[in-house]
Amino acid sequence: MTNPSAPITERRYVLPLILVTSLFFLWAFGVNLNDILIPHLKKAFRLTDFRSSLIQTAFFGGYFLAALPAGWLMEKIGYKRGILVGLLACATGALLFIPAASVKLYVFFLFALFIMACGQGVLEVAANPYVTILGPPESSERRLNLAQSFNPLGSITGVLIGQHFIFSGVEVPPLELAAMTSTAQKAYYVSQSAAVQIPYLVIGSVVLVWALLIAMMRLPASANHTSGFHGRGAHFRNLLHNSNFPLAVVAQFFYVGAQVGYGFGQSSGTQNANGTFFPVVPYAIDPAGALAGGHVGFNYQTNALVVGAEADIEASNLNGSTTISAFDQTYVFNVKAETLASVRGRVGWAQDRLMLYGTGGVAWGHVSTPPLDALNGWRTGWTAGAGAEYALPRNWSARVEYRYTDLGRMSSFDPSLNSTDDNKLSFHAVRVGVSRKLGAP
């Protein structure tokens, strides 16, 4: 249980906590260098979109394959040795970039990335639970949150350093490159491949220094064993019987987000007294107003093609009114969309960090039309549009999107006025929003 008055740690745990918290910075740094490495190696090896996507496949494949063995490893050798194994694997992967650049072999780079990712996977398995025991149990959640707050710093630093040291060379335009002799072209590609040697030599050296510091560190006795891992079969069976566990696993494939926007549209209808005491009265309204809500969805990417699905729900202030004088009477008509929702498919084309996409699907809206209250309620229609989404560090993204929504025409008989009323509502909306992928490393 969390106790706000409990200290974040104890004096004897300060140095271990600092060293282990720094690991959160280091692995976030390594993960986000991939965003720089992909376009660089794509240029150096003249890769297709498919072949360049193998960088992410090799890296996160290493994360995936290392997860379960890392847990068993902690059981056998403990947290400290587990962290050292992870750091040594990371350093080995980083230093393998030097011979990979020398022989200019793309598959060698993929192998180096795979080894580096396996090491980072082992680090995450060891460091996350280790942080929770480096202090009072009452403040374990605060320690973990503090350590994880260094992930974004590592992400931003990785991108900035990668851009400065890896992309600092001369960029040759395609036409100029095509005009070079074969010898000059070869020298250019070799120089691009070699540009990663110094950055990854520095990374590997820093990781080795950190491994040496942790090897020399005196760990608290309670952190030298992993009693929580014993009886893993029983624990795993308990997990399978916990209804939250499969939901948490499924959640890893989804993203969530929020958006705001502004809509404007057209609404038209009639009030028809069925030939009794007043005639058919047509009306038209131009509603407008703000929208705000949230969304959840998932994406699947193969090469540059991205397909997925998304659902959203919004509170809306899309409303308007009109006053009509006809047949010696004054008629006031209103329309307001109070809640909007949709379930849509998405198809996009991604290039580097930018994705352009189209979207479309089913839309719902809760609409009120006073004084024609017989038309109040939920309506079903369709929506379609397009947008652009830009990937940010730490699995965040920002988007801007346009959609047209048609909620159709609704008719209803109002016995209080002996009238048959109908109303149609459609609107345009521009939205801006942010999303974050769940389960991000």
Number of helices: 11
> Level of helix content?
40-55%
Number of domains: 2
The structure class reads alpha+beta
| SS elements, strand count | 9
Question: What's the overall geometry?
Answer: elongated
Reported CATH architecture of the largest domain: Up-down Bundle
CATH topology of the largest domain: Growth Hormone, Chain: A
CATH superfamily of the largest domain: MFS general substrate transporter like domains
Classify the beta-strand content into a percent band.
25-35%
CATH class of the largest domain: Mainly Alpha
Low confidence ranges: 222-231
Largest β sheet strand count, sense and barrel closure: 8 strands, antiparallel, barrel
Query: What's the rounded overall pLDDT mean?
Result: 82
> How is the largest sheet built, in terms of strand order?
1-3-4-5-6-7-8-9
Order of helices and strands: HHHHHHHHHHHEEEEEEEEE
Q: What's the alpha carbon Rg, rounded to whole Å?
A: 29 Å
